[in-house]
Design goal:
By secondary structure, the chain is an all-alpha fold. Helix content is 59%, strand content 3%. It has twelve helices and two strands; from the N terminus they run ααααααααααββαα. It has a two-stranded antiparallel ribbon with strand order 1-2. Helix 1 packs antiparallel against helix 2.
């Protein structure tokens, strides 16, 4: 593996640390960011040994893959909409009824099931190789991610005093697994690779994938009214907020409004006033908040930048 490959992964780690340092610990994006930092550091540690068959290819894939999450963060910071798969997490990042474990898994869902297939195709086009050339190392990472996911679930699940209230959470999250997500992502890689010579079909498939993954992320963020106890863990742990008791339930009149009440605070995402057990609408920024120069075409295709940074045709 080249020194430049190692440097690129190290740059990703440094950027993830910067993002985490700038966010409140209880922010939903911060929860996922800490998880992603833990995974990226684990991958970087194994790049220097014999864990991977082709460490250089995995280092490049890791950097290209991370770039898609970093683009979503940058888009949100600039007042633009991130891709559809990321919108639920950014919109509900401060919702008091969403458990930190839900934030972690919604981020994993968006990044694995949407970003990863596009990143694999992009890496193959850049390296001039077939996806099959990356398949062995791709599947080798599954074991590493399964270990991390298990640790995250143990760290973030409510304690024994909240087990009864946690039942909806365990039921909801029992249907999602990192292994199944990565297998689905690999199937998407194969489809995108076959469609690369048919630009229109490739774009349609990528757009449909973005939307369907966003719907699942939205479902994973179903507000359950759970408030986790303080989790005083180490630097890389996914710490949560100290909020004993149950989530406040808005009155019926507020719940029946077409647009839920929100409380905006500087540097913090708006918090929808939505009852537990009801999925709120993902927040869409008004056109006036988007960057200068975006017209009607940009609004109709908010995820164009994501396609342009991949090997897929963008026009």
């Amino acid at each position: 593996m080249t020194a430049s490959a190692t440097a690129s992964v190290t740059e990703v780690v440094d950027r993830l640390r910067e993002i985490g340092a700038a966010l409140p610990a209880t922010d939903g994006v911060a929860v996922f960011n800490r998880l992603y930092l833990t995974v990226t550091e684990a991958v970087r540690h194994r790049l220097g040994g014999s864990y991977f068959t082709d460490p250089a290819a995995m280092a490049e894939l890791d950097a290209v893959f991370a770039g898609r999450y970093l683009l979503a963060v940058a888009a949100d910071a600039a007042g633009q909409e991130p891709p559809a798969c990321w919108r639920p997490l950014f919109a509900l990042r401060a919702h008091p009824g969403v458990h930190p474990l839900q934030f972690a898994l919604a981020g994993m869902n968006a990044h694995i099931q949407h970003d990863l297939p596009l990143a694999v195709v992009d890496t193959c086009l850049r390296r001039g190789c077939e996806p099959d050339g990356l398949a062995e190392d791709y599947h080798r990472i599954n074991g590493l991610l399964a270990e991390v996911e298990t640790a995250v679930r143990e760290q973030l699940m409510p304690g024994p005093d909240l087990l009864e209230r946690a039942e909806p959470l365990t039921h909801l999250l029992g249907a999602w697994s990192v292994e199944a997500a990565r297998e689905g992502a690999w199937a998407a890689v194969q489809a995108l690779w076959e469609l690369r010579a048919v630009p229109g079909a490739a774009r349609a498939f990528a757009a449909a994938l973005d939307g369907s993954v966003g719907l699942l992320s939205h479902a994973l963020l179903l507000p359950l009214g759970l408030h986790p106890a303080t989790n005083a863990l180490g630097r890389d742990a996914l710490s949560t907020a100290d909020a004993p008791g149950t989530a406040d339930t808005p009155d019926k009149d507020a719940a029946d409004k077409d647009t839920p009440d929100r409380t905006d605070a500087p540097g913090k995402a708006a918090t929808p006033n939505t009852p537990a057990g009801r999925i709120p609408e993902a927040r869409n920024r008004p056109a006036g908040e988007r960057s200068t120069g975006e017209g009607a075409g940009a609004q109709a295709r908010p995820d164009q930048a994501q396609l342009e940074c991949s090997g897929l045709p963008s026009a």
